[in-house]
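Postdoc handover notes: sequence design on the structure in folder B. Input C-alpha cells:
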C-alpha cells in the first residue's frame, strides 16, 4: 500500500464524499485514503491495516454513527494504531449544539480524540486542511519521519549514545536513534566512507560526526553561537520557557540579548509531551514544539544563543555584571536574567542510577515512548507531569503503572488529569508505594523493579521502562553569597528579600530583582514560582520590562549611573 493511511468514517454519503474529495485532492500523492460508511466497517479496516503492517497516520470520524459514536470508534484506534492522530468531524453548525460540545469535551477529557475537525464546507477549505496538515505534522514528528532528521547510530541504548540523544532532544532538534547492528543501522553505516567511531551522528546534509562533544554537536546541528567575550545589554541564563520569553521580549525591545544554556532550548518543558494548559493552544502543544517556535521567534528578533555551555560565575565589576561561561570566558551585561529553572531529584537507588538511559529516565517520555511499545512501564511521581507522562506512555506501552508515595492521587495532581488517569484502561495507580530497587537481570536494560508498600511489604515486578518525576531543586549553589536564596536554594526576589538579604541600594528592589542589583530571577528558579510554563513565560517578559525601567531610570547599579540607553 503506497504511503501511510488516512481513514475517514461517516454514515452520511454526501458528507463522507466531501471529506474524501478533499483528502484525495491534497494528500493522494503521499498517503492512501480509505473511507468507510459505518463504525464496524472502519474498525474492521483498522484491524486489517494493522494485520497487514500498514501505518495509519490519521483517522477522522463523524460523531453520530449508528451503534457506536465517532468518539468511541476513535477511542479504539490506539489499540491497533498507537501513533495515529484522531479527529472528530463536526459540522460548522455543531458549534451551537450542546450535545456536540459535550461529546468533544468528554472525548478530549478521556483521551479518545486528539481534537475536533470542522467538516469541509466547499472546496478548497483551508480551515479543514489546516487541521489535517497539523495532525500530519505532529504524526510525522512523533514518528521521526519528518525530513531533515538527524540520525544517531550507537552500540547500545545507554552511555554516550544516550547522552547525545539527550543533547538533541534538549535542543528540540528532530532525530532518530538506531543500534549499529540493527538493519536500519547497518543500512546507514554501509552508505558511509571509511571507518567511524561510534556513536555516530549523521546530519541531514550527509556530514558525519564521530562521538562529538556536546557543544560540537549543538554547533553542527545549527544551535548556538560563540559569544566571544562581548558585552550585552541583557544576558539570560537558561533557555527554558522563562529564558526564551525574556529573549523574545528583550530582543524585540531592542536590547542586545544573549541567551546561555548548558543544555539546549526549552528546559524542563522539552520533557513535557503535551502541555494542555498553555494559552492559545486548545489542542495542547508539546514542550519541544513550543520551545522550538519560541527559539525561532527569539532568533528572528535578533537574540543570540550560546548553547551547551554553562554559566559558572557571576560578579559585579566595572559597572557591569560579569558572566563567566564554562567554555568561552566571560561576557559583560548591564542586566542578567537568571532563568535556570530546577532539576530533578534523584531516586537514590544505585542499581537504577546505573541504568539511566537504559530503561530508566528522569523526566517525561517524549523521545522514549515509542521504543516501549507493548512493554511494562512504571512512572514514579504524583504531580501533573507524572500523570501526563503516564497517559502519554499508555498509548504505546502494554501496561503503565503510576507509583505514588501519597495515599491519594488528588493530593498533587489537577482534577482533570486525575480523571483521565483513573479512566485510562491500561494505567494502574499504586498509592502509598515506593520504588526501592530494580535491575537489568544481566541484559543491559531495565528488567525488574522492587516496590515497597506502606506496610513495608516488598514485591518484585517486571518492568522495561521507569520514568522518574519526583520533584526538583534549583542548581544555584555556585552563585556568590551576595545573591540571597531560601533554605532550598531558590532565589529570593523583590518583596521576599528580607532586611538581612544584603540589598545594597537606597531604592527598593524591583519585583523580580534579586539581592544583587540588576540580576533578576524568572521562572522555576525563583522562590515562590508557580512552576508552570505560562508563569515562567510571564516572568520572563516582566523581567525585561523591569530591565527597561532600570535602564530608563539609569538605576542599574551604583557603578553604572551613567549607563546609556540600550543599543538597538
Ligand atoms: C515532564 C514535565 C511536564 C510538565 N508539564 C507542564 C504542563 O503541562 N504545564 C505547565 O504549565 N508546566 C508544565 N511543567 C512545568 C514547566 O515545564 C516548568 O515550570 C517550566 O519549564 C519552568 O521554566 P523555566 O524557564 O523557569 O526553567 P526550566 O524549564 O527548568 O529551564 C531552565 C534552563 O536553564 C538551564 N540552566 C540551568 N543552570 C544553568 C547554568 N548554570 N548555565 C546555563 N544554563 C543553565 C537549563 O539547562 C534549562 O534549560 C512540566 C514540567 C515537566 C518536567
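Designed sequence:
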Amino acid at each position: 500500500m503506497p504511503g501511510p493511511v488516512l481513514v475517514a468514517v461517516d454514515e452520511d454519503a454526501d458528507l463522507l464524499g466531501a471529506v474524501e474529495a478533499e483528502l484525495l485532492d491534497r494528500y493522494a500523492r503521499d498517503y492512501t485514503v480509505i473511507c468507510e460508511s459505518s463504525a464496524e466497517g472502519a474498525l474492521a479496516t483498522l484491524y486489517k491495516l494493522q494485520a497487514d503492517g500498514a501505518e495509519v497516520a490519521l483517522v477522522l470520524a463523524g460523531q453520530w454513527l449508528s451503534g457506536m459514536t465517532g468518539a468511541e470508534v476513535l477511542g479504539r484506534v490506539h489499540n491497533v494504531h498507537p501513533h495515529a492522530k484522531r479527529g472528530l468531524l463536526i459540522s460548522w453548525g455543531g458549534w451551537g449544539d450542546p450535545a456536540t460540545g459535550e461529546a468533544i469535551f468528554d472525548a478530549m477529557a478521556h483521551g479518545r480524540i486528539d481534537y475536533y475537525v470542522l467538516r469541509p464546507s466547499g472546496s478548497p477549505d483551508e480551515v479543514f486542511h489546516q487541521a489535517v496538515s497539523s495532525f500530519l505534522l505532529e504524526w510525522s514528528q512523533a514518528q521521526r519521519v519528518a525530513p531533515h532528521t538527524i540520525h544517531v547510530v550507537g552500540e547500545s541504548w545507554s552511555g554516550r549514545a544516550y547522552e547525545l540523544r539527550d543533547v538533541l532532544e534538549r535542543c528540540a532538534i528532530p532525530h532518530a536513534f538506531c543500534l549499529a547492528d540493527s538493519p536500519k543501522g547497518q543500512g546507514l553505516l554501509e552508505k558511509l566512507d571509511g571507518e567511524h567511531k561510534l556513536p555516530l551522528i549523521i546530519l541531514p546534509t550527509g556530514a558525519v560526526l564521530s562521538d562529538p562533544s556536546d557543544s560540537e554537536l549543538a554547533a553542527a546541528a545549527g544551535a548556538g553561537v560563540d559569544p566571544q567575550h562581548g558585552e550585552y545589554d541583557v544576558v539570560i541564563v537558561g533557555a527554558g520557557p522563562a529564558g526564551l520569553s525574556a529573549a523574545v521580549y528583550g530582543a524585540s525591545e531592542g536590547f542586545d540579548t544573549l541567551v546561555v544554556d548548558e543544555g539546549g532550548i526549552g528546559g524542563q518543558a522539552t520533557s513535557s509531551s503535551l502541555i494542555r494548559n498553555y494559552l492559545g493552544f486548545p489542542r495542547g502543544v508539546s514542550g519541544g514544539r513550543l520551545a522550538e517556535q519560541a527559539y525561532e521567534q527569539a532568533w528572528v528578533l535578533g537574540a543570540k544563543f550560546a548553547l551547551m555551555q554553562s554559566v559558572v560565575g557571576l560578579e559585579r565589576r566595572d559597572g557591569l555584571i560579569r558572566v563567566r561561561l564554562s567554555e568561552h570566558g566571560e561576557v559583560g551585561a548591564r542586566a542578567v536574567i537568571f532563568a535556570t529553572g530546577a532539576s530533578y531529584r534523584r531516586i537514590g537507588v544505585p542499581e537504577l542510577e546505573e541504568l539511566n538511559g537504559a530503561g530508566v529516565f528522569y523526566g517525561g517520555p517524549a523521545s522514549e515512548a515509542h521504543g516501549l511499545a507493548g512493554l511494562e512501564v512504571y512512572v514514579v511521581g504524583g504531580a501533573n507531569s507524572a500523570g501526563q507522562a503516564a497517559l502519554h506512555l499508555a498509548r504505546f506501552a502494554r501496561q503503565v503503572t503510576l507509583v505514588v508515595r501519597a495515599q491519594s492521587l488528588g493530593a498533587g495532581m489537577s482534577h482533570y488529569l486525575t480523571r483521565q488517569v483513573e479512566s485510562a484502561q491500561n494505567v494502574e495507580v499504586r498509592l502509598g508505594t515506593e520504588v526501592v530497587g530494580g535491575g537489568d537481570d544481566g541484559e543491559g536494560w531495565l528488567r525488574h523493579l522492587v516496590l515497597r508498600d506502606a506496610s513495608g511489604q516488598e514485591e518484585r515486578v517486571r518492568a522495561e521502562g521507569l520514568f522518574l518525576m519526583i520533584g526538583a531543586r534549583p542548581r544555584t549553589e555556585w552563585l556568590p553569597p551576595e545573591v540571597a536564596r531560601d533554605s532550598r536554594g531558590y532565589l529570593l526576589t523583590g518583596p521576599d528579600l528580607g532586611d538581612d538579604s544584603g540589598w545594597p541600594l537606597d531604592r527598593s528592589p524591583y519585583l523580580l530583582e534579586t539581592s544583587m542589583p540588576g540580576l533578576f530571577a524568572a521562572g522555576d528558579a525563583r522562590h515562590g514560582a508557580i512552576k508552570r510554563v505560562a508563569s515562567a513565560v510571564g516572568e520572563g517578559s516582566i523581567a525585561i520590562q523591569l530591565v527597561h525601567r532600570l535602564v530608563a531610570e539609569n538605576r542599574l547599579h551604583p557603578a553604572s549611573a551613567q549607563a546609556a540607553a540600550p543599543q538597538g
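Context for whoever picks this up: Confidence is low (pLDDT under 50) at residues 557-568. Don't rerun without checking with the PI first.
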